[in-house]
Each structure stands twice: as C-alpha cells, then as structure tokens.
Amino acid sequence: MSGDNLAAVLHGPLDVRFEKIPIPEPSHNEVMLCMGSVGICGSDIKYWQTGKCGRFTVEAPMVMGHEAAGTVVKVGPGVHDLKAGDRVAVEPGVPCRTCHLCKTGKYNLCKDVSFCATPPDDGNMCKFYKHPADFCFKLPDKVSLDEGAMLEPLAVAVYSCKRGEVGPGSHVLICGAGPVGILAMMVAKQMGATSVLLTDISENRLAVAKSLGASHVIKVSTDDPKELANQIEATMGCQPNVSIECSAVDFSFRTAIYATYPGGSIVMVGRGSFDVTIPYTIAATKEVDIKGIFRYANCYPAALEFVSSGAVDVKSLITHHFPLLDTVEAFKTAKSPDSNAMKVIIHCDQ
Predict the structure, then answer these.
(1) For 281-330, what is each residue's pLDDT tens digit?
(2) Are 67 and 187 found together in one domain?
(3) By C-alpha distance, which of 97, 137, 136, 101 is closest to 114?
(4) Residue 203 belongs to some domain of the structure
(5) Same-domain check for residues 115 and 241
(6) What is the mean pLDDT of the segment spanning 157-171?
(7) Spatial distance between the Cα atoms of 271 and 115, rounded to a whole number of angstroms
(8) In sequence order, what E strands does the chain have?
(9) Are 192 and 125 contained in the same domain?
(10) Residue numbers of the domain that contains 223
(11) How many domains does the chain divide into?
C-alpha cells in the first residue's frame, strides 16, 4: 500500500483533475483493492463531455470509473471468501439488500443502490478503492485484469439477451455495433441464436462485428426506418424475433419496431431521447413487447463463465491502453471516430 492514492476526479464538463484522496479502510464485509484495469464506458464519456448522463448530473467532484478489476490488498472483518493477493472483477452496483426489489432478485432497480461513478457516488479510477466483498468476483488465473474489467459491459450483454429471451433458433437484430452491441451478438450466439444481424453507421465497427461472428451486417444509409426494416428482413431472410437496441439513437428504436416479427421482443439498452416518437400502433398491433433494462442483475457469474471458458473473447474488443495519468488522452481517444477505438482501458497501477 505504498504511495499516494491518486484518482481521476471529474469536476465538470471536460474538467478532469488528478487528486490525492485518502486510502480507504475496509469495514465489515469489505475489501480494499489496488485497482488494475478500468474501462471507459459510453456513460463515462457523457459525464466527461457534458457533466450529465440520462437523469444523473455531476453536482460535486466525482472519481470516475466503473468497469473495473483489481487485486485485494486488505480484507475487512467478516470476509472469508477473499484474501490478499486475489484478483477480482468489481460489480459496481451495490444495493441495500433489504428492500422488496433486492429480495426478489431485482437489485439493479433498488432505489438505494450505490453505483460507481454515478452521481453522487465515486468510482474506482484510482489506485486504492474499497468495495463490498460479495460484489467482487475472484478471477481464475487464466483471466486477466483487462478481461475482468470487461465483465461489466459483458454483464449488460448477458442481461439484454436474457430480457429478450434469446434462445435456440432465435433471429436477433442488434442496432449499434459498439462494445455492448458486439458483446450482445457474441452472447446471443452462445445462447443458441441461429442468426444475428448488426446495424451501424461505422464501417470499421461493422467489420469488427463481422470478424467476431456476426451473421450479417448492414451499414445504415437511410433515414427511413421502414426502408431499413425491409433491408434487414431481406438480408436475414426473415424478420428478427428479438431486437436489441444498443445505439441510443431514436431512429434505431423506430426501426426495431418495424423490423421485429409479430409477437417478438425489443430490448432497450441504449438511452435515446426522453420523449421519443415511435410508431406505437405498429408495435401494438404486432404485439411486440418493448422491454427496458437498467444495468443488470445476477449476471456476473455467467459473464465470468463465458470469459473463463473461452466462449466469449472480450480481449478482441480492447483496442487501446493508457496509464492513469493519461486519462484525458484516453477519453479523447475513446470519443474520437478517427481512433477506431472499441474499448479503451486505463491502468491505475501504472
């Protein structure tokens, strides 16, 4: 535990400062971690650019980072399953554990959840960080800290496919070929999907998706959702019975409604406009189920099994690495379309 606890702290839009914060002392059921790998998420970029993401606003300085893995350096009272030296992935959302939502397994919807780097809660883009032990998942020797950090977006993908009820024989449309969209494609195939089509405006991202197993890809070149829905059906040879919207673009949501087979499901992963105009009558008369998701619940074990077994190769999406002091450059790289970045990892132990 030598050295200062340096942290990347967001004070407002485009205002990241490197500050020394106190080294935390683990309490009951907590562990202190030396942070290793922390990924940059789309929500991190929104906070960095605008100070806001969805309904959350940065109103006080906040340590960034929530896609993370590190090494246990100290355990608090009551911790029996982890010890110093264990490498763990951090599930960043910690609920109250006692409300009805928690007790029925929907702890991601707990009204008192504390989630890393979601105002007002600090994240883990720092050297030392403490976290409840039961939300830390021990990594097998063959799983790296980089892969451990990738369990967070992979958990989103797992939860999205579960909500969409992807299974053997499913035909899946995924709007948006970013990290979560491509991970959802990889998970859908592991769950038995017969075909998976991804749409995007980026040729590079679609090429990555195709190289990693996408059945079909379409570069979006129209502003007519019905026209794109027709392209999707012609390319797949059928209408998808599960559509997963990962682009956070209203147009994609409308496209999914037109494209989805009657009786199918649309899973809303991306965060588009608060008040989006949709073809409601089409969705209603097709009996298409529109399902929201908020993060994930009980998905880290499955995500870890996918990675440790080699079923899902998350390393293939990691394109850039930066030390903690280069966090600003890392964010610029993650945001820039010219960098062709997929997943950018910050190494807090460098």
Answers:
(1) 999 999 999 999 999 999 999 999 999 999 999 999 999 999 999 999 99
(2) no
(3) 97
(4) yes
(5) no
(6) 98
(7) 17
(8) 5-12, 15-21, 30-39, 52-53, 56-57, 62-63, 67-75, 87-90, 93-94, 114-115, 128-132, 136-138, 171-175, 195-200, 216-219, 242-245, 265-268, 289-292, 318-323, 343-347
(9) no
(10) 161-292
(11) 2
